[in-house]
Amino acid sequence: MQWTLVIPLKPLARAKSRLSDTTADRLRPGLALAFAQDTVAAALACPAVKDVAVVTGDALAGRELGALGARIVPDEPGGGLNPALGHAAAVVRSSRPDSAVAALNADLPALRPLELARVLDAAAEFPRAFLPDAAAIGTTLLAAAPSRELLPAFGTNSRDRHRASGARELSLDEVDSVRQDVDTGDDLRAALALGVGPRTAEMAARLLLAQPHPTRNPS
Predict the structure, then answer these.
(1) What is the rounded average pLDDT of the residues 166-187?
(2) Alpha-carbon distance 103 to 132, whole Å?
(3) What single DSSP character describes residue 13?
(4) Are 55 and 7 in contact, with CB atoms under 8 Å apart?
(5) Distances (CA, A) of 78 to 8, 9, 37, 87
(6) How far apart are CA 104 and CA 52, in angstroms?
């Protein structure tokens, strides 16, 4: 089965606020864009992915992700994450009603195409399925087979809410790169340990250079 992935991205100026204890405000938009670029590039390289639609109202992100080959869907509802995903899925299926659609987080900078393929192949066995995040609280991927509605319920405790909605929870080993989203400094360190894409690696190096160095006391 070939999938269309729908990836939501909020305006970069408001993205990744929980990284404020790890990176300066001036670097966070660039870091959020790097996460999304590495996520989209890996998704497009996945053999189970037919195409990628990014739903965003951010002009810079739209240009950069469109240059990678993603289709850009304007965030016309402007009502938050789940309405944006529902809108993008509807846009995709307006031209291809029988598309298998999966929502994927934009902050998976360590994403590996073959691990994503394993998750999507497993999801194809069910009408709707989801993959919990590394913290086992949220969700990084929600999939809907052809003719099935996506019914996204992302946000706080989305693992419980997607399970309650009837989606099948996927229990897979060795797909850590698909689970490791980045909201906090600890998340970023975990992603770096897995091995991130080139854009995130470059931004992480800039982040390291921007850290203040301790002042040595004179002896």
Answers:
(1) 96
(2) 13
(3) G
(4) yes
(5) 12, 12, 22, 10
(6) 10
The burial class, CB within 10 Å (0-12 / 13-18 / 19+), for 47 is: exposed
**Which two three-digit tokens encode residue 12?**
């970069």
pLDDT at 53 over 80: yes
Between CA 205 and CA 188 the distance in angstroms is 12
**CA-CA distance, 66 to 204, in Å (whole number)?**
23
Alpha helices in the chain (DSSP H): 28-44, 59-67, 81-95, 113-123, 158-164, 176-179, 185-194, 198-210
Listed as own residue / partner, the contacts of 9-18 with beta carbons closer than 8 Å and 24 or more positions apart are: 9/36, 9/54, 9/55, 9/56, 9/58, 9/61, 9/65, 9/106, 10/56, 10/58, 10/81, 11/56, 11/57, 11/58, 11/61, 12/58, 12/60, 12/61, 16/107, 16/182, 16/183, 18/183, 18/184
The domains located in the chain, with CATH, are: 3-210 (3.90.550.10)
Question: What's the token pair of residue 18?
Answer: 């929980």
Beta bridge partners of 143: 102, 129
User: Taking the model in full, what pTM does it have?
Assistant: 0.93
Q: Which amino acid is at 112?
A: R
Provide the pLDDT for residue 215: 46
Instruction: With a cut of 90, say whether residue 176 has pLDDT above it.
Output: yes
DSSP 16: T
CA 76 remoteness from chain centre: 20
